[in-house]
User: What shape does this take?
Amino acid sequence: MLGGMRELTVAKGKKITTFKLETKDRPDDDTLAAAMIGPTGNLRAPTIRKGKKLLVGFNEDAYTEFFG
Assistant: This one.
């Protein structure tokens, strides 16, 4: 799912975390998966791809920035 993505933004309630995926400091796949998976063990919803950016989870501020 993250193949070709430059940026991953994960929203968990009021907390927003953005990962830059094309850097030396890129977190490992387990860290990214843990951020994307919700309490039920499924991918957080909603999940939206826009170009090379991926937004997982819902937060109004994150949506404003993502689509702005």
